[in-house]
Design brief:
This protein is mainly alpha-helical. The protein has helices spanning 2-19, 25-43, 46-52, 59-71, 75-103.
């Protein structure tokens, strides 16, 4: 009887330990990042955007192109773009926080 209770408790502990990384803020941000990129790909002809973009050496031209493209696109694409940027920043922040904590 005692062995059965111990096995039950340990099974639940292992399950929680296995599921915990997928419920973190970083995992949620990564899912939002991937889903938002997918949705942008459904609304925008991405290959054509890259074809119309100036050369990467022209940094000011690229920044102006991105700003103009962002302002002149549909609202849903603007929202998705902001969501991609915020979720990417969230993931980078968490990775940095985790890395600094591991180094200390």
């Amino acid at each position: 009887m005692e062995r059965s209770i111990k096995n039950n408790v340990m099974r639940r502990v292992r399950t929680i330990h296995a599921v915990r990384p997928f419920t973190s803020g970083t995992a949620v941000a990564a899912v939002f990042f991937v889903l938002s990129l997918y949705a942008i790909g459904r609304f925008v002809f991405v290959a054509q955007v890259f074809r119309n973009m100036p050369a990467l050496e022209d940094v000011s031209g690229v920044l102006q192109f991105m700003a103009t493209a962002f302002v002149n696109t549909d609202l849903i694409v603007q929202v998705l773009t902001i969501l991609v940027a915020l979720s990417a920043l969230w993931v980078v922040r968490d990775i940095g926080k985790y890395s600094v904590g591991r180094l200390a």
